[in-house]
Amino acid sequence: MSWEIIFETEQLLAFWHGLLTTLSLLLSSLGIGAVLAVACALALTNGPWVLQKLVGSFTYFVRGTPLLIQVYLIYYGLAQLDWIQERWDAVWPWTHFKEPFFCALLAFALNTGGYTAEMLAGAIRETDPGEVEAARAMGMGRWQIMARIVLPSAIRRTLPPYSNEVVMMLHSTSLASTVPALTDITAVASQIYSDYYLPFEAYLAAAVLYLCVTFALIGFFRLLEKRYLAYLAPRSN
């Protein structure tokens, strides 16, 4: 083994920049996906029939196709259309499609948004009817009940499955390495493998970085669950 190459300053800096790219992709896609998920969940549970079908088709497509295919469809499909390329130097938002980071971010945000929307919609449907009746008795309107009672409760109860989605999204960011000129953790490992033929050392170093971030995310969500889901824990006599 040649671990001294992995620990050279050049390689460590490359992994550091790869880590920053991975975290940027993860946090940005989660932020955009969360906004999309709330909107889609509300459409699935309270929207008109046509909107429910449209959003349901979107989430079905996202959950029914591999994320890698979705990345390819955006970067090698949409971004390569002549109609978009004719406009990506001057017309917003097509100007962003020439950026590899944006194409990967769009694919990841749509993917996590679709999955999270279905989780949140399920939690909304499972809200205790007693909470809704109590809110109506206090004179709240439909959207007041949704904003102040149903949605906050659903978000709290979605935390455990959402933590799994976040971890899966972290691992899925490794697919960004398939997009040219986008250097995440996996892309750095692949470059070291290509330059020095050190597959075991390079990919093991990448695995350690993913593992460290995963443990940090799990710990963070455990703290959130302990704080916001304490009322669901069984009480000792």
UniProtKB/TrEMBL annotation:
Localization of this protein: Cell inner membrane; Cell membrane
UniProtKB keywords: Cell inner membrane, Cell membrane, Membrane, Transmembrane, Transmembrane helix, Transport
Bilayer-crossing regions: 12-45, 57-78, 202-224
GO cellular component term, pick one: ATP-binding cassette (ABC) transporter complex
InterPro entries with a match to the protein in the record: AA_ABC_transptr_permease_3TM (IPR010065), ArtM/GltK/GlnP/TcyL/YhdX-like (IPR043429), MetI-like (IPR000515), MetI-like_sf (IPR035906)
Protein name as it appears in the record: ABC transporter permease subunit
CDD domains (UniProt xref): TM_PBP2
Membrane topology according to the record: Multi-pass membrane protein
